[in-house]
Amino acid sequence: MRHTISVLVENEFGVLARVAGLFSGRGFNIESLSVAPTLDPAVSRMTIVTCGDERILEQINKQLHKLINTIRVIDFTGQDCVEREMALIKVSAEEDTRAEVLRIADIFRAKVVDVAPRCYTIEVTGTPGKVGAIVELLRPMGIRELVRTGPVVLGRGPKAVEK
Amino acid sequence: MKMTGSKILLECLRLEGVETLFGFPGGTVINIYDDLVDSPIRHILTRHEQAAVHAADGYARATGKVGVVIATSGPGATNTVTGIATAYMDSVPLVVVTGQVPTPLIGNDAFQEADIVGITRPITKHNYLVKDVKDLSRIVKEAFYIARTGRPGPVLIDFPKDIQVATTKFDYPATVHLPGYKPTYSGNLRQVEKAVKMMLGAKRPVIYVGGGASSPEAAAALKQLAETLEAPVATTLMGMASIPKRHPLCLGMLGMHGTYYANMAVTESDLLVAVGARFDDRVTGSVPHFAPQASIIHIDIDPTSIKKNVRVDLPIVGDLHEVLNKMVAKLAEYPQEAARAREETGFWRQRIAAWRESHPVHYTPSNSVIKPQFVIEKLRELSAEDAIITTEVGQHQMWTAQFFDFCRPRTFLTSGGLGTMGYGLPAALGAQAAFPERQVIDISGDGSFQMNSQELATLVQFKLPVKIAILNNNYLGMVRQWQQLFFQRRYSQTVLDVPIDFVKLAEAYGAVGFSVSRPDEVEDVIRRAFAEPGPVIMEFKVEREENVIPMVPAGKALNEMVLSS
Ligand SMILES: Cc1ncc(C[n+]2csc(CCOP(=O)(O)OP(=O)(O)O)c2C)c(N)n1
Ligand SMILES: [Mg+2]
Fold first, then answer.
1. Is the Cα dihedral A135, A136, A140, A144 positive or negative?
2. Which pLDDT does position B398 carry in this prediction?
3. Cα–Cα distance between A130 and A86 in angstroms, integer?
4. Alpha carbon of B494 to ligand 2 centroid (Å)
5. Cβ–Cβ of A21/B303 closer than 8 Å?
6. Which site in A26, A158, B37, B351 is 20 to 30 Å from B294, CA atoms measured?
7. Residues B439-494: pLDDT tens digits?
8. At what angle do helices B477-486 and B395-403 cross, to 10 degrees?
């Protein structure tokens, strides 16, 4: 099963390598990983999408905790949360497909952020499912390049996990 | 007053109570070695950095204190890797300081540069690169704190040469601030209560003890718990010295080369209380067939050990000493129930006694050739009760576990998790450095001995009277045994077919050597060796193709032991 986990870590030298090394060394999956500082510049927040059964997830959670630089680990699976991912999609826009590309972008409330002759770059934000859907719709038009950030996630409501 | 990084390091070590360092010099630690001349801390110069780490490890296991190592950058640092991994697997507290090239050169493939922080990340509890001399005292403080608290382990500090000569005001922090590191010690009281209820209700309980109970305090609490319930105790290789072998409740070792009765008891138990153990595959054999009828209580300081390999019915995270004491205290509130439990488990102990009687730990004695097990028995008989025993890895190690009656905590130092050949001699060196007056004996194989035999020089130089007993079978015996049993006796590269003169080897280093091949000479040579004031090699030319039994073939269930060779 797919799990989205937030990890608050001390913003220290090598901490990303520690987390990545833990996953590779113990044979855990990483589907995506995003990381940036939080409000407190001494703390970074990682969002990791991984998969595995209950036993593996329990190990991932505990092993992450065991790293000295890890402050908190939150598994958002089954929790009420907002999950968003961004993608930049460089898609062919030929005379006969240009209108369709724009129409699809419009439906997904995506923006054209760069225009070249016969090529648009589209920025889209949404749940990983929504991003996947626009990618599939644009695929027949000819996607030249695609970059996804991997999701980030916050719990709903006023409660915060940082401090 | 401003101090250099190098002086600050040594001052921090002094304030941490470090009396002995193990290490080996080189270009990027030359400043530290220069300052050592004026330091009260003793430095023991091993002849290889791997041995320095094993020595610090032996020192740490024997004393319970943090072992400290210094090595130079590049090859010095990479030579520490096996030692660090060995300590990591067996949860031994170490602080390893490596020199590093000056910070402006890091990443440039400079002379003797190696990314030791990257290399040791998965085999240290934590590691540091010092980038600013102002961080140094905090880092050293944290390193010692992390190494010795929670589940202990090695911490590495990579210390660039330019930071060693940089200066700052020295100020040793009184406390550490580690927001992400808060080990749990006390153990949840409600869980403890539940555990006590389960123990009082069990009909066939077994306590299974690992290396987590190695401190004398934890061992004492364990003994009390076992005695209150009259529950039999099986140990891992690492848990061996935590309960006296001769104790009536002690079943000896379980697992691959465990005793018949320990493995049968675990297999038939209805409650298994795992104490500071981690269900290693050498212990469990086939996991689905491991203790199939038992509820499992698992007490450990490290939450990641719990439910890693086997299902657990009741986890308790905490320091064993505290948790076991709480259990004993709780049990004292139920004296009648405890008495009834002792009574109701009487038949269980009888059943185990019957297994013990039908399949004792045994070997076939001989009058013509030295049996390795006989040497181990004699070593026990003739050594002091508080003697510290180290081993290398192989058959001799398993025979030591089977035939040496350990009776005190911290007297059996062996590489359990990593199984490092070459561990025993330097570990003995470190233990002897900690306890100059006690007997320290390395029980060795002819193969393993040659992995760190250069340390004979260190023993002689520092007057460390370690006694080395080499059980010479001219084989990499343990591998040969597997080849015999599972590879149709095709002894591929396990025959050590060059007759080494271990007596001359000892003498070449200025030590004493004895060699014997007849059983009736064994006792005499051990007596003579023990009477020598300095280091001694005793070579015992033993039965070459003796096997370690019982043996649970890899992947089989514990009750599928091979009982004879
Ligand atoms: C560094 C290292 N290399 C290889 C092994 C694999 N190994 C385990 S036991 C053994 C044989 C050890 O031979 P010896 O020291 O003579 O002991 P014996 O089994 O003969 O008593 C070997 C090669 C190991 N444990 N450690
Ligand atoms: Mg051998």
1. positive
2. 98
3. 10
4. 9
5. no
6. A26
7. 999 999 999 999 999 999 999 999 999 999 999 999 999 999 999 999 999 999 99
8. 100
Identify the band that residue B378 occupies on the pLDDT scale cut at 50, 70 and 90: very high
Helix (H, G, I), strand (E, B) or coil at B64: coil
Interface contact flag, A70 B180, Cβ < 8 Å: yes
Of A14, A25, A71, the CB nearest to B180: A71
Query: Measured between CA atoms, how close is A62 to chain B, in angstroms?
Result: 5
Q: How far apart are CA B227 and CA B148, in angstroms?
A: 29
- What's the pLDDT score for residue A151? 96
Which among A17, A58, A68 has CB closest to B178? A68
Query: Phi, psi (5° rounding) for residue A78?
Result: 75, 5
Pocket residues for ligand 1 (CB within 6 Å)? Answer: B 392-396, 419-421, 445-448, 471, 473, 475-479
pLDDT at B177 over 90: yes
pLDDT of res. A13: 87
List, for residues B480-491, the tens digit of each pLDDT value. Answer: 999 999 999 999
| Helix, strand, or coil (residue B175) | coil
> Is B304 in the A-facing interface, judged by CB distances under 8 Å?
yes
Can you state the angle between helices B395-403 and B372-382, rounded to 10 degrees?
Answer: 50
Q: For residue B266, which of B562, B553, B557 has the smallest C-alpha distance?
A: B557
| Rounded distance between C-alpha atoms, residue B161 and residue B110, angstroms | 13
Whose CA is closest to B253, among B206, B299, B208, B310? B208
Question: For residue B131, which residues of chain A lie inside 8 Å, CB to CB?
Answer: 13
Q: How far is CA B283 from CA B238, B310, B444, B459, in A?
A: 11, 12, 23, 35
Question: Cβ separation of A66 and B122 shorter than 8 Å?
Answer: no
pLDDT given for residue A2 in this prediction: 92
Task: Quote the ipTM score.
Answer: 0.89
Residue A163, pLDDT above cutoff 70: no
Residue A110: which of A145, A135, A93, A143 has the closest Cα?
Answer: A135
**pLDDT tens digits for range B74-91:** 999 999 999 999 999 999
Q: What is the atom index within ligand 1 of the atom nearest the CA of B420?
A: 26
Neighbours of B364 (CB within 10 A): 10
Distance B394 CA to ligand 1 centre (A): 5
3-class secondary-structure state, position A119: strand
Average pLDDT of chain B is 97
Average confidence (pLDDT) over B389-397: 98
Are A25 and B308 in contact (CB < 8 Å)? no
Q: How many angstroms separate the alpha carbon of residue B500 from the centre of ligand 2?
A: 12
What length is written for chain A?
A: 163
Asked if residue A45 lies in contact with residue A36, where contact means CB atoms within 8 angstroms, the answer is yes
Listed in sequence order, the residues at least 6 apart from B215 whose beta carbon sits closer than 8 Å to its beta carbon are: B64, B321, B409, B410
Who contacts A17 (Cβ-Cβ below 8 Å, separation ≥6)?
A: B118, B121
First to last CA, chain A: 29
Whether the per-residue pLDDT at B541 is higher than 80: the answer is yes
B139 close to A (CB below 8 A): no
The verdict on B177 touching A (C-beta cutoff 8 Å) is no
The pLDDT value given to residue A161:
84
User: In which residue are the tokens 């290399």 written?
Assistant: B119
